[in-house]
Each structure stands twice: as C-alpha cells, then as structure tokens.
Amino acid sequence: MSFSSKVKEELSAVIPSARHCQIAELASILQFCGKVYPLRQNGNTPILIKIHTENELVARKCFTLLKKAFNIYPSVAVRQSSRQSRNLSYILTVDRTEEVRSILQTCKWYEDFIQDGEVSLRTHSLLLKSNCCKRSFLRGAYLAIGSMSDPEKSYHLEYVCFRQEDALFLVDILKSFSLEGKIVLRKRYYVVYLKEGEGIVDLLNVMEAHVALMELENTRILKEVRNSVNRRVNCEAANITKTVNAATRQIEDILYIKEHYGLENLPDNLCEIAMVRLDNPEVSLKELGELLSPKVGKSGVNHRLRKLTEIADRLKV
After folding, report:
1. Which domain holds residue 164?
2. How many CB atoms lie within 10 A of CB 240?
3. Are residues 166 and 245 in the same domain?
4. C-alpha count within 13 angstroms, C-beta hemisphere, residue 82
5. DSSP 3-state assignment of 281?
6. pLDDT for 58-90, tens place per residue?
7. I want to staple 94 with a disulfide (CB 3.0 to 4.6 A). Which of 49, 125, 152, 186 is the partner?
8. Side by side, which strands form the sheet with 34-38?
9. How many domains does the chain have?
10. Which strand (E) or helix (H) includes residue 161?
C-alpha cells in the first residue's frame, strides 16, 4: 500500500464527534465528488444528489457521514470503471426529495442555483467558521481529491481540482493554518500543492492523521541522518584527496630539489622538513609537524613546504 493510501485509510477512520464537523467533511466530499441533478417530470422538478468515486474508503466515509449527520441511508451502486480497467466505481445516490433538500439547506446550498442538467456543489464559508470544521473540510478534500508522494523519495502533497475557484478556496483554508499552498495548472486541472516536509507534517496534524505524521517524521529524521553522514563522508573523502594530492606535489618538488640542487644545500629547517616528508608521504601537516624536533605547528609546516615549492619552481625556470 502506498503512503498516500495509508493516509487516506487513517483519515477514513476519523469520524468527528460534533455534527457541524461531520457536515463540513461531508460538504467537502460532496463538493469534489458530488453533483445535484434536477429531473423535470410532469411540471415538477425532483432533485437528487450523486457522489461518484473510485475509492472505496471515500464511499464508506460518505455513507457513514450521511447516516450520522442526517440519518440518511443512500443507495449504493458498484460498477466497473471501464472495459479496459479493473477499477471499480462507487456511486452513492440520495433521491428522496425531502432528504436532498435537508442536505442542501444544511450545507447552505439552495435550489435557486440549480438549473437544467448537473450542478456542481460549492461549500459556503458559513460552514467553516471554526477551525475544527476547517480541519474536517481539509480531511474530506484529501480523501476525495488528495494524494501524496512516497516521503522516502520526495515531499509532495496535492489536491487536484477541476475548477480554479475550488483551488483558491482550498488555498484560503490552508492559509488559515499558516500553510502556504501553491497552485499550478496541470493540463485542465488546478493543482494545490505543498512541497516542504515541515508544511506537509503540519497539514497531516491538521487533518488528524497522527500515525502517518509519525511515520513521515521518522522518515524525515532518517533521511536527515543519512544526508548528514553522506555529507561528512564526502567531506572526509574530499579532505583525504586534497591531502594526498598536496603530499604528492610536495614530494615531487622535494625530489626535484634533491636531484638538481641537493637537500644538503638547503637551510637546516627546510632540509629537515624535506627528509621527514619523504619518509612519511601519507601523513597530514599536523602529524608532520609532530615528527619534527622541536615540534612545529601546522602553519609552520605549511610555510616550510611552500618555501620548498618556491625553490623547486625557481630551479625549473
């Protein structure tokens, strides 16, 4: 199971105790998965609500919320998405007029906005006055249209919206929790996304996906430790390479001086450092200084080796 599916599975089990939060989460699912269909018959206009999803968890959550918040039991149909696909589609239908009107009125949706054909639903801001209801709305939105990448690979959480106004609405709700959602147009969809690990952790906390949050935090910690170790290893490797290359150049200069000038003709301090370097080609400058008598600091050793390089350069001219 993917990490995104784990998050949805956990969120599907979170049932708000307060009815207003149940309504807010249901309104979110209806907004992103639901349609109102006016049906004209004999001069009357019966209406029905349909919720369409390919995620069984969303269908179960929607059924539970309708039952708990409205004592409504929708009819459920399960169909194969297409001949080429093995995926199943779940269609929940509320077709009793009084039940439909109860949902529309409670969710602040009115028939004044319903015309011939299907109508997409939009959540009224009056339903989301309190933070607990906003949490529920974001939870429902993630169940309906959300997804998340594997945190082992990258940090990316997104909501895929059909309408720009839905994307802007989600960004405003995220902003109320100090979360900076960005919008990008992907083909014909408006995608609201978060890419920072810290922001995604905060959003999981807002949606009350605490198990997924801990798993993500553990992954982040392990990745940071691995990255820290890799940086340290790379730094050590770079330092070793630098030391070896420097020692190789120093030995080449000392051997050139020995052949073309003679080490015995050097000042005593330069002759000593030259002999010690030839005998210890692998040691660092600090270790080289401790082999001298008397001992010399790292900067003093570096100064003497630079003098040898200058002498070798003059001899090569």
Report:
1. 3-208
2. 12
3. no
4. 2
5. coil
6. 999 999 999 999 999 999 998 886 666 677 889
7. 49
8. 75-80, 88-94, 47-53, 34-38, 119-120
9. 2
10. strand 157-161
